[in-house]
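Hey all, quick one. A colleague (J.T.) asked me to put the zinc ion job into the tracker so the inputs and the structure tokens live in one place instead of scattered across chat threads. No bug as far as I know, just bookkeeping. Sequence used:
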Amino acid sequence: MSTYGIFVLVVLITCELCSNAVVRCAPSPTSANVRSLARSKSSANNQTTLDPTEALEIPQVSELDAEIVLRGLGYNEVDEVDGLSISQRMSDSSEKSLTDLIRIFQREHGLDESGVLDDDTKLVIGSPHCGSKRSSKTANDVSKWTKKSLTYRIHNFPRGKSPGPIRKLLAQAFSEWSKVTNLDFQEVDTEDSDIEIGFGGQVHHQRGDKCMFDDSKTLAHAYYPEVGDIHFNSQYFFEGDTSLTDFLDTALHEIGHSLGLEHSSSKASLMHPTESNGFTEPQPMDVQKIQALYGVRRGGRATETSGPKLCTLSKIDAAIDDDNGNVYFLAGNYFYNANKTRSKGELISSKWPGLPGNIDAAFRYLDGRSYFFKGDKYWRFKGSRLEPGHPRSIRKAFPGLPSNCDAMIVDGDGDIYAFRGNQYWVYETKTKKISSLSPSSIRLLGLPNNLDAALDTETTIGAFKGTSYYEAQVNGKFRTTHSSLLVC
Ligand SMILES: [Zn+2]
Ligand SMILES: [Zn+2]
């Protein structure tokens, strides 16, 4: 890991604005921040903990709770998972034991298939999820709308909430589907709308009749065509930790059902049943499925699976390395291998299923796990597997670290540096607290303000801003190079 403590003392940076002139941008060595960094480095790797976050709370899920949730979600009727036959097909599908239900659930959610209600399984079962049931129809009996222009009505809004932003997000969600397929949506205020949208508690109404969420962790549910109604659990939205992006993600998902899509076991799909992944548009596999039902929107977005060339980008969002020494850049919905500047971007969701696009910052921790930050949440991956309990609130896991970071790195002690605007914060892993000196001016590290991305390796600290790259290097004596990376 980098020896920031040492080289921030002597960092020299070639300024973007003054071409070849070499300007000393580093602070004086007596700066409190620099001393703090040096001390942090000298205390070396002896106290490193492999989980820098505050402990994840395991939800209380009894076997009875699990059985209610799994049967409620229709796992009792499952005998195929997205076309894949379950190897241990049950002899009588109406009599599956809890162990069988858990095993199927674990398979669909990429968990170890033990059939045991372990902590990882509790985390997923106990997470807020969609309550739409698996439909028992066969492949030939596709449920879809027979018309292409659909109306929706917002029956009510969550109590005490202003309708404006909710109405806007719903319109946005419908429009995202409309962009990719031949369906048009119009909000109306008449009772004969095609799709009726409502907010309510565990017991609510569906066009005058009683309707219920199966359990208290149900975010929302929707009816397949040609009913199409959507009910959101008002306790989950527009309060506390749940952001507007969570609502948009859930609305996109429920509209997917309302148009005829079922759940997907892939975390790269908007139609995965558990908690919001922060998606803001249908993902490529969802686009393919909806286009199979209603066709490709003429002049609309095709199912793009590759992005522009790396060297044509004007900026990147985040940078991260892996155990094999590869460095990856993330930009929009795509990732790039840094060594292949002329290669096209590949979908982020193909490498890290469950990770949305437009990431703020990323780093690889000392134990090899990858952390990705966006807004007020972060996603933690072991290899290409999103770990149970994620995405998780930054505020709960890293108390004191800000949301919407520009860039992040980890030092040799496992302490985490978060950059935002003209400041940086240090999260000390040993105490699981923010350093008392945070936030400090980013200039103290000899780096420019408003970074796009940063990367730490054994011998360098790299920072990216626009098409410029700043690198502080240790090679006997210290020097800093500044080069243009994103050039074809
Ligand atoms: Zn669903
Ligand atoms: Zn309902």
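Adding what we noticed when we looked at it: The longest helix spans residues 163-180. DSSP finds ten helices and 31 strands in the chain.
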